[in-house]
Batch of 2 targets.
Target 1
Amino acid sequence: MLKLNLFALILFLISSCTSVYNYQVFKTESPELNLISNLLVFEDTNCTITYDLWSESGNPSFLFYNKTNQNISIDLADCFFILNGISYDYYQNRSYSYSSSSTVTNSSGTSRTFTNSGSNSSGKTTIQPTYIGNSSINSNSNSSTHSYSTAITNGSTAANTKGYSISFEEQKIITIPSNSGKVISEFQIAPYRYRHCDLHKNPNNRNGIDSIGFSKENSPFVFSNNITYQIDTLSDSKMRIKNNFYVKSILNLKEENFYYSDYEIGCDGKKSMYKSTFFKYFSPGSFYISYPLD
């Protein structure tokens, strides 16, 4: 009985230290975009721009696809993410660096010492797009350094160390070749839970869901991507596109209402042996946040 009570106490302590999460789902409206193949798509004669907002905190990044037979340039200094009337620059003139090193040790009866170090750099190297976290990094310069050293003494341990570093700068102009695309990513939409008297932190009604709707005029989140591009060979071809969105409804959900389980259907039409977990409210025009109840 003592062991049973002790086991129950351990389970209680573990469960009490585990945070319980509910979810908030944001559904958006985007009048200029069409739903095609589970993506939101804008299209003109030169390009298509596609969105999938579904992610934690909302992902307003976009894939710009060049439909023409010529290169298209996007001027990031003339591209902006606008959220509730506040403009954020896609081009921020940043520099980035990355470094790595490793050490290998071994023992040997031989006495030997050897060192070698060096560096190299290159003028213009295109590294686009590269992503760190949720940031788009565009590079037009690259430099690297490396070193190697070995020291072995009779009966002692040998240390072999290698290392390198790379630095690069953000690129202002992005070139997109004919019939190809690039992803431009930088911002989040809503990193925190939206608080409203009609949205209970822990919905306690029959279905465990609270919701509230908005129009474009009173929506708490109105945002857009302002994109400027130009066909390289045409000096007067600068085009400006504005893709607009607004949050039309917000739902607060218990965790059991955010997911559902079902069998996956294979290419042969047969169900899988075990159930998988899916998002119940998945949509390319929606996003979500999770928040703890404690």
Target 2
Amino acid sequence: MKVVLAIRKVIIILGVLFASCSAVLVRASTAPSMVLVFYRVLIASLMLSPFVLWKHDGEWKNIPRKMYVLSVLSGLFLGLHFSAYFESLRHTSIASSVLFADMEVFFVAFAMLVFFKEKISLKGWVGIGVTFLGSVLIAIVDAGSTSNSLFGDALALSAAAFMSVYTMIGKVCRKYMTTTVYTFLVYLSAAVTVLLLLLLTGAPLVGYDPINYLIALGLAVFCTLLGHSIYSWGLKYEKASFISTAKMLDPVFASSLGIIIFREFPPPLVLIGASLVIFGISFYSKHG
């Protein structure tokens, strides 16, 4: 039994590693961010469709209509999350982008505080304070750079806000549908959302270097199906606190890959800020 539990934890950590690869894949691409998002979620939904239609065909009639609407809404926010996150990587460092994009837990916490009057413990506020301090240190460094890093940081932070809405809706929907059906609906909805945005902006869907389509395939297989979907799978077997803590490895993995592949070394102050952010989010996840 202990071996099985250990294997599940390893699978979840591998899921974090696969998800963290999205930062370096996006950085290596030349296509617009929303184009990559569109192909990522479209390919993921197409890959899931045979399993959904064959293995879960009897589940559809038992799902309340409201859950279909919420799943579509969840996919909308997931599409916005990926779009904002991918675009942030064009303007700021991998370390800053991933760290700010991983702050969804605090948006969830404040939403629960404002709308549901859930209290945040003293230790929870300590975690929030430490994370805020780390964010300020990173922002100070980015503000002093010659690039548009602060704009990238803001985009990454908005990506965290979009992800928090996706997470809160998902907690409701997952009570009524399996991971496979829910993620299929969400990815398909995200694809439609981003497609509409692309049509509105007039961005072409084709005509890019072939490497971009291979990157989109990698994003769909590794970062989505073997990454984000693993989080949903893991919630059935592990505590949410473990999942949240494991996800804190995301900026560590992503930054390490950035150093190895792009020789992108974060400044010392960013490393200090990143350490504070990771500690603060982890501390809040355990005690908030």
